[in-house]
Amino acid sequence: MSMPATLSDEETSAPEMNLDKIISINRNSIVSRTVLQGRPVIGKCYTPDRYPEYQRQYAGFCSPPFLKPFSEELTRRYCFQKELDLYQFSSQLPEEERFSSILEGVDPETKTFFTKIITIGNYGEHFLQVGNNYGQKAESLLHAVNQLHAIFGRYHQELYQCSKTRRSSRLKPRNKEEDYERYLNYFRTIIRRTSDSFRAYSAALPSARGESKTAPLTMNKQVDRFLSEVGVKDLREVVDDFVNRDWEICYGKKSPQLIDVSKKMKRQLAQLKELYQEGIASVVHGDVVNPDNIFYMKDYMTDKVLACDFAEVRVDQRALDVAGALFNPYNMPKSVPDEIIAIELMGKYVEKVHANELVPLDNKDFVVRCLETRLRDHAVRLFAIDSGYIPAEIRVFASRLQEFDSPENDEELHKKFLQEMFIRRFTDFTEHYLRAEGRASLEDIFGKQGALLVEQIRLVENLYTAAGVMASSPSAKRQEHVKEIIES
Asked: Fewest CB within 10 A of the end CB: N or C in the chain?
């Protein structure tokens, strides 16, 4: 198959996308239906600042203190190149093996690539049609994940090589040191943006009142000192415990990295093959949590699947995508029966991996890994990211949620969004797995791994309640009261 054209100045210079047909706008890119050399296509541009629609949505938010969530030029270029490489790779596969739409053209100057329009439905649309049937939605999306992982598994080494950097791959896994810094930043962000107690503490500082002769504390130091005053002695130690336990649960090892990217590519590929064959890691999509990124052919339970938005594709544990399919903002368990359905579906995924890829996965360990990923990704990572959403982003997001009624007041909207999407859901999760029948199943059925997960859930809950991110649940208060009675 011939490669897609790189657009020259003679053909078209910095092609503009049709702003009347915008599909999505986010902080780092804009996606729209447009026309390329007379053909209708989808364009994704990593220089969204060029478009007035983007400027209108984010006016006033591209400068301090909102600047940080907007990626730097280097990061946008990195994501553009990774997606482009993966589309090019997929476009050259036999039709039955392709995992994406066909790449039609590229404009490197504007960091824009163009793909053939996918005329079939995505799982976000399917979710809206199905309504509140958790099991049906979760099973259909997880079936697609199985098919996507089977393709990624067959080509895991080729995918790793197709987006090479000078020394490694853009699909390289994150290492433990990166996780320390990421989750330290996430926890600080959640506390800063959601805790009324912290805001009151920060407002009462002498520097906030203009009474201090010394330089004001950085926001991070404010958070750390606040936590110290409410009984959390060292946030870095808390994060160290969190990340070390996460790696033990998810990877079964305490080494600081899955692949040694300082080694030559041949050695990296050998390490990747070993991780894949042992069931520890594979190439994953990384953003299944957004069901709009996965498409189905004719029937949502078909064996043919296509995907888009490959900026998060990397080598990681399979549970990342499985948890994204089972526990995402658009479809979360709402009852004990739903929680049981989720665990049953994890078992079905494992069976299909055995059948399709001949990769050994321990069913019990895999269930715990999925629940740990649910905790880490939904209760921490997405919570931190989405806590920085501006009102326009929340309203777009909430328009897809049938049960969410958006207040008109921006401040009320932000608070309700975080309460409904994260705090209430995390409370339900902790109630089930710390104080109800879910805890018994973790400790009795899943052994040491289950006990580690109980410790992990309790760590996050204790941090959030101490910092004022969430209130203790009634059952947690009763347990604490009984404990005080016994110990007094």
From this structure: C
